[in-house]
Specification:
Number of strands of chain B: 12
CATH superfamily of chain A: P-loop containing nucleotide triphosphate hydrolases
Structural class of chain A: alpha/beta
CATH topology of chain A: Rossmann fold
Structural class of chain B: alpha/beta
Strand content of chain A: 15-25%
Order of helices and strands of chain B: EEEHEEHEHHHHHEHEHEEHHHEE
Largest sheet of chain B: 8 strands, mixed
Shape of chain B: globular
Strand content of chain B: 15-25%
CATH architecture of chain A: 3-Layer(aba) Sandwich
Number of helices of chain B: 12
Number of helices of chain A: 11
Strand order of the largest sheet of chain B: 6-7-8-3-9-10-12-11
CATH topology of one domain in chain B: Rossmann fold
CATH architecture of one domain in chain B: 3-Layer(aba) Sandwich
Number of domains of chain A: 1
CATH superfamily of one domain in chain B: P-loop containing nucleotide triphosphate hydrolases
Radius of gyration of chain B: 21 Å
Order of helices and strands of chain A: EEEHEEHHEHHHEHEHEEHHHEE
Largest interface: A-B, 43 and 43 residues
CATH class of one domain in chain B: Alpha Beta
Strand order of the largest sheet of chain A: 6-7-8-3-9-10-12-11
Number of strands of chain A: 12
Shape of chain A: globular
Oligomer: heterodimer
Amino acid sequence: MPEPLLEVNDLVKYFPVYSRGILTRKKVGDVHAIDKISFKVGKGETVGLVGESGCGKTTTGKVVLELESKDSGTVLFEGKDVHETLKNANRAEKLALRRSMQMVFQNPYGSLDPRMTVFDIISEPFIIHKHLPHSEWKERVYSLLKTVGLEEYHAERYPHEFSGGQRQRISIARALATEPKFIVADEPVSSLDVSIRAQILNLLEDLQVKTGISFLYISHDLSSVRQVSQHVAVMYLGRIFEYAPVDDLFNKPLNPYTIALLSAVPIPDPERHTQRIILPGDVPSPVNPPSGCRFHPRCPYAADICKTDDPPLRELGTGHLVACHFAEKFA
Amino acid sequence: MGELLRVEDLRTYFYTEAGVVKAVDGVSFTVNEGEPLGLVGESGSGKTVTVLSAMGIVARPGRIVTGKIFFRGQELTHNSESEMRKIRGKKIGYVSQDPNSSLDPLFTIGNQLVEVIRTHFQVSKDEGWERGIKLLKLVEIPEAETRMRSFPHELSGGMRQRIAIARALAGEPELLVADEPTTNLDVTIQAQVLELLKTLGKDLQMSLVLITHDMGLIAEMTERVIVLYAGKVAEEATTRQVFQTPKHPYTSALLASVPRLDRKATLVPIGGGIPNLITPPSGCRFNPRCAYAKQICVDQVPPLEDIGDRRTVACHRWKELDLRRSA
């Protein structure tokens, strides 16, 4: 694994749930959005974060960037604590850190201001960060547009004049405007048409090859995760269940949840019919996650120990981390 | 294998202020008994409008301009609304993409099921209720008796989609149309619903029309495929043929652009976007995005040719192109 750029240790984020009422309102519980997760993103690599809705993927992305504050745990970026830097360092250092970590959002229809031209959208980071003299703005915006496969004349247009795929390119150009080292891409292709998805996935890969940028690629779509990632973390109900190099995870999954998840994805090849593992029931509520292993009510292999003991994330094989009491069984 | 539904030269246009949107422009196809058929294409290719037209429920400003629709040889095109009602829901069941908006939030599940049952069968309320419970059991809803009294918001997305399927089955249809039935569902829940649709198709000997943009679902669920592009049929063939020897450049481009779970391959994106259907490109509608386009493709609309082996394709150059997948 390359030198780590981002290190996340025991990160926790709960969202409080309140009862109804105005004066009688009180806290009745917590949504355990992320519960003690740890992972690393190396320089120039993409880590895929997969899981079903409500597993805490998006929250992870936001907390890592300190767009949401964490409850406990640490996020280190280039060895420096992100939370501490943003809280205590001087303005120049804060801005420098913000510049190096950016985000691309899921919905390119909601994340671009309809009243701003593409030029204004992409140059807005320059106003905030003042890292580029005004005389160079135009040239930089044009070169960013080129990088993401758009043309110079697009700069004077408004977001509504673009298709979904083009808008996502604009969001990527905006994220690149601060020359970041790390981008959180939260479901960047899931609102796009199938034929357009490949364009954006290829763009992300090209950017990485050219600039050595790192990505945290958040998605529920396992096929696209396999396409772009070098390491993959599988999340379930606020926990990381498995973390491994991409081929290990897809070829030799060790957690029953990962195994079921992979078997559930239809493969576009009529000759290959995999035996599908059907999990009973739905993902439980993250307000009161099940005791022990959070997956035990749906797990086909659950034993008594799974109901009581929460399995730790342990290493089984080089760089292959798994949280399951019986992971050896699947090796 | 008998013929169940036949659609001939269907054209459904939407008369909007911006102009006439030719959403479906000359589509013909046949659904055979017991043969799961897939309709595949990107958004705006006319998949949904095609089946809604076949059931006669195109909303304004849409209108069926021409086309004939036969169900078991009987022409439906000139049926009155009351005659259509007997077929819709009874002979053809429909499951929409979004179970949140297809179920009425103000009525219990039981209410909504009994309503459909009593529309199609002359049974008492009590018997309707009993049948409702049986339907819920058929789609594997736990505690069916309790669920009959639940409201849609009390259920998860996967459960709601099962209930939408149960409701579509209430008239004991011969054909079930499932329009992107799993797009809004999580992967593990999608697996549950797909398995259910498969077993139902076998057990009830029902034909299935599956509308989707997901080539994986097509491979897994269907035996025949119709590939739609911009309101026209690009290609029709068996599922196996479509994946092994696609004849239309759009089909092969679509296959090359989807990432696969079982291996990492170079993705070849399709350049450009879906054309505007108010002023579609001249000639073949795919020509601006096609890697093999020639002058003839801009000048002339390719006819849908019968190329034998129960296959049709609409491409000027199908004979000379070898689009086999380099697997």
